[in-house]
Amino acid sequence: MNTDNTPSASSSQRARIDWHEVKRRLEEARVATGHVTAPDAETTKRILETRALALGRKPASDERQGAQLEVVEFVLAEEHYAVESRQVRDVYPLEQLTPVPCTPAFVRGIVNLHGEIVSVIDLKRFFDLPDKGLTDLNKIIVLESVSMCFGILADLIVGVHFVPVADIQASLPTLTGIREDYLKGVTPARLVILDAEALLADPNIVVHEQIAA
Q: Coil, helix or strand for 67?
């Protein structure tokens, strides 16, 4: 270890650095790149206050907008229904429906969707709604969860859109009977939002492949 006052080699190198030249070059680089000097204290305070006001207004705007559900809206017996799109795997035209014997009346049959056999449930029969039969306009909405998959019949597909959660009411006096068990809510426009998870989890709707002899 060097214990005397003689500068070491590295100290001699640092001593030869022309800091004035370094400062001059840095200043030239700052000017060349268009950097501006830092704002004074008053300007900095004003900028921070403006940012704070902007951040304070954002949650209020988000709260007014509110959470929304993306739903697939469809028609059943001239009433408008919907299910959350996250439970909808796909929508198909109703084609080549094959009846299955020894099943409940609300089970319309099965269809072959790209090699997969899917049961088709008629919610009009399940909910005891007026049934005018099948037409070319009928569609199959395929609902799917981790453990269950089946299709529900729709008279007509309206489309996919968002519904504000704040607009969803608990129920209506006219929505009685079995529909109450699968009801997520109703909008002021009388759109009935069904609980697809409850439908998919109901053991009474499960269609077993085995057919009674």
A: coil
